[in-house]
């Protein structure tokens, strides 16, 4: 792997290794938020801006989730090993948009009434599922630092961070249930298919390697 | 399943608390002083003003359909009308798609002429009414109604139309008629939403005959002083202001008088969530969310406007509460 990458690097690899890559990606990740905030300020979010903002933040959480789960398959298939460098940043954007989604709901829908939020969580399965997904994201974000990896040990850290697969399933279920009232599953199906394919790739890839490597923990998750 | 919490226990507020009396009186005062300023003093002056339709300014988009300010009790909500752009741009009309912006984007192709409404069933005078005949059947009135959607948002809409009772009186229901069923247009060629299986088409709604005969039950032909925009249910729709919005069928093609309670589309689709009555009731939660509060579209404060408490019968309890005397509104939701 290392030997191959020392030869002439493909441009995506060079770009990913560039010192400006992460700051640029960080700014890029804030563009959707800036867009939504601008829409809110300029009154461009339609008749129900609160709903548009909450849903927009949810959409971007899902999109970031798709991106972060795309990193490893893309890295393995393309051989652009430097993709691993940006995985944590994208993962933190999933947490970032997920948290804003939750805060927007708690603020705009629930008026910061925590008791009401808890009642709503108990009452509506789709809220409960969303809350669970966010709690998992919180655990992953809280252990995303290098020191956390050292403290937990690589194996345990990796086992914990496989919870992102559960987040993907919960997020799709959350979206599915939210749309169930209207039987309108076209958009849900797109996310379910894409996320499903990304998870299925892992199962297939793991099985393909399974024979030679046994149950050893590899860096490819 | 109904979940009772400390917040939505079964307690009726006093009707005096429900009617925003201060605002109502304010409006009267304003009407009075406006009339006085116009040179007309006292009762006669107020009458003259109340009959003028000048309260709502038509946006000038569609053919004018003026109506005199309605004198039906409860028909003039003392609230700011929701902006025309929101009333006509944020709609549930699944025949054109389930997104709130779909009806405005896709209903343009709906042909509203020629249009007929068939009246049938248990009536002495069944028949087919042309839309032009319906428009002339009774004097047009302007009514400012609150509209509460079951999804938890609300608007204030200046409708133009007359009481459905005007039509019912003319077709003479038989003694055996107990319910009225409303059948709405389901035309695949014009309505792209019909390809979705979200509901069984055509969309069906129904009322008890006494509900249908209540003066607040409006057969509406327009809003904001103009004919009905397609996305709001042109050319003729029902408006039942004390019930969740879906009870008010749009683009009606048939009115049938029956002895049996008619099937209604949402009740068929999800009986545990939507009953036949569907009266606005903050104390009876939807199985999947609370109905205690609502978001008023276009409320001052925009994004950060607080949700408002939802009123029993959408604030029309003084007018319609007696229709349900003795009924358990948790059973008949």
Q: What does the model show?
A:
The complex is a heterodimer of chains A (221) and B (333). Chain A is mainly α and 221 residues long. Chain A has one domain (16-210). Chain A has eleven helices and no strands. The model of chain A is unreliable at 213-221 (pLDDT under 50). Chain B has 333 residues and is α+β, with helices and mostly antiparallel strands. Among the domains of chain B are: 19-50; 60-150 and 158-266, Oxidoreductase, molybdopterin-binding domain (Sulfite Oxidase, Chain A, domain 2). In chain B, strands 1, 4, 5, 8, 9, 10, 12 and 13 form an eight-stranded mixed beta sheet that branches. Mean pLDDT of chain B is 88; it is low at 34-54. The interface between A and B is medium-sized, with 22 and 29 residues.
Major pleated sheet of chain B: 8 strands, mixed
Do you know the CATH architecture of the domain at 60-150 and 158-266 in chain B? Alpha-Beta Complex
- Low-confidence blocks of residues of chain B: 34-54
Shape of chain A: globular
| Number of separate structural domains of chain A | 1
**Count the helices of chain A. How many?**
11
From the alpha carbons, calculate the radius of gyration of chain B and give it in angstroms.
20 Å
Shape of chain B: globular
What is the CA-CA span between the terminal residues of chain A?
17 Å
Report the count of strand segments of chain B.
13
**Radius of gyration of chain A, whole Å:** 19 Å
Q: Do you know the CATH topology of the domain at 60-150 and 158-266 in chain B?
A: Sulfite Oxidase, Chain A, domain 2
Strand percentage of chain B:
15-25%
Which structural class best describes the helix and strand composition of chain A? mainly alpha
Helix content of chain B: 10-25%
DSSP strand tally of chain A = 0
Mean pLDDT of chain B: 88
What percent of the residues of chain A sit in helical stretches (DSSP H or I)? Answer: over 70%
Order of helices and strands of chain B: HHHEHHEEHEEHEEHEEEEHEEH
